[in-house]
Amino acid sequence: MFFSFPCVPCVLWLEKVAKHLTTEYTENTLGLDPLYVANEGKLVAIVAADQADAILARMKNNPLGVDACIIGEVKASRKE
Predict the structure, then answer these.
(1) At residue 31, what are phi and psi to the nearest 5 degrees?
(2) Contact predicate 56/70, CB 8 Å
(3) Distance of alpha carbon 48 from alpha carbon 27, whole angstroms
(4) Order of strands across the sheet that contains 72-74
(5) I want to staple 65 with a disulfide (CB 3.0 to 4.6 A). Which of 1, 15, 33, 59 is the partner?
(6) Three-class SS string for 21-63?
Protein backbone atom coordinates (compact mmCIF):
# COMPACT_ATOMS: atom_id res chain seq x y z
CA MET A 1 0.00 0.00 0.00
CA PHE A 2 1.46 3.36 -1.01
CA PHE A 3 0.41 6.44 0.90
CA SER A 4 1.76 9.88 1.49
CA PHE A 5 1.87 12.31 4.35
CA PRO A 6 2.03 15.85 3.01
CA CYS A 7 4.98 15.61 0.58
CA VAL A 8 6.40 12.42 2.21
CA PRO A 9 5.86 9.29 0.11
CA CYS A 10 5.70 6.08 2.16
CA VAL A 11 5.19 2.35 1.58
CA LEU A 12 3.29 0.28 4.13
CA TRP A 13 3.59 -3.51 4.00
CA LEU A 14 0.12 -4.54 5.21
CA GLU A 15 1.11 -8.18 5.67
CA LYS A 16 3.64 -7.05 8.31
CA VAL A 17 1.05 -5.27 10.46
CA ALA A 18 0.42 -7.57 13.46
CA LYS A 19 -3.19 -8.44 14.15
CA HIS A 20 -4.48 -10.32 17.15
CA LEU A 21 -7.39 -12.75 16.81
CA THR A 22 -9.85 -10.25 18.30
CA THR A 23 -8.79 -7.69 15.71
CA GLU A 24 -9.27 -10.18 12.88
CA TYR A 25 -12.70 -11.13 14.25
CA THR A 26 -13.78 -7.48 14.51
CA GLU A 27 -12.43 -6.73 11.06
CA ASN A 28 -14.27 -9.67 9.48
CA THR A 29 -17.50 -9.36 11.47
CA LEU A 30 -18.01 -5.60 11.48
CA GLY A 31 -16.10 -4.73 8.33
CA LEU A 32 -13.84 -2.29 10.16
CA ASP A 33 -10.35 -1.53 8.88
CA PRO A 34 -7.98 -1.64 11.88
CA LEU A 35 -5.75 1.00 10.27
CA TYR A 36 -8.58 3.53 10.51
CA VAL A 37 -9.92 2.65 13.96
CA ALA A 38 -8.48 4.07 17.20
CA ASN A 39 -5.77 1.76 18.48
CA GLU A 40 -4.37 2.70 21.87
CA GLY A 41 -1.03 1.37 23.02
CA LYS A 42 0.66 1.23 19.62
CA LEU A 43 3.77 3.07 18.44
CA VAL A 44 4.79 4.05 14.95
CA ALA A 45 8.37 5.29 14.90
CA ILE A 46 9.98 6.83 11.84
CA VAL A 47 13.73 6.36 12.17
CA ALA A 48 16.80 6.53 9.94
CA ALA A 49 17.10 3.39 7.80
CA ASP A 50 20.66 2.71 8.96
CA GLN A 51 19.48 2.68 12.60
CA ALA A 52 16.21 0.76 12.15
CA ASP A 53 17.53 -2.73 12.97
CA ALA A 54 19.31 -1.58 16.14
CA ILE A 55 16.23 0.31 17.35
CA LEU A 56 13.99 -2.66 16.56
CA ALA A 57 16.28 -4.99 18.54
CA ARG A 58 16.07 -2.68 21.57
CA MET A 59 12.28 -2.52 21.28
CA LYS A 60 12.05 -6.33 21.13
CA ASN A 61 14.11 -6.59 24.34
CA ASN A 62 11.22 -4.94 26.22
CA PRO A 63 8.31 -7.24 27.16
CA LEU A 64 5.88 -4.72 25.64
CA GLY A 65 7.80 -4.76 22.34
CA VAL A 66 8.00 -8.47 21.59
CA ASP A 67 5.72 -8.04 18.55
CA ALA A 68 7.60 -4.99 17.23
CA CYS A 69 8.46 -5.10 13.53
CA ILE A 70 9.29 -2.89 10.58
CA ILE A 71 6.10 -2.35 8.57
CA GLY A 72 7.19 0.10 5.88
CA GLU A 73 9.59 2.70 4.65
CA VAL A 74 9.76 6.34 3.59
CA LYS A 75 10.70 6.88 -0.05
CA ALA A 76 12.51 9.77 -1.70
CA SER A 77 9.81 9.98 -4.36
CA ARG A 78 6.68 8.20 -5.57
CA LYS A 79 8.69 6.71 -8.45
CA GLU A 80 10.88 4.48 -6.26
Answers:
(1) 70, 25
(2) yes
(3) 32
(4) 2-5, 8-12, 72-74
(5) 59
(6) HHHHHHHHHHCCCCCCCCCCCCCCCCCCHHHHHHHHHHHHCCH
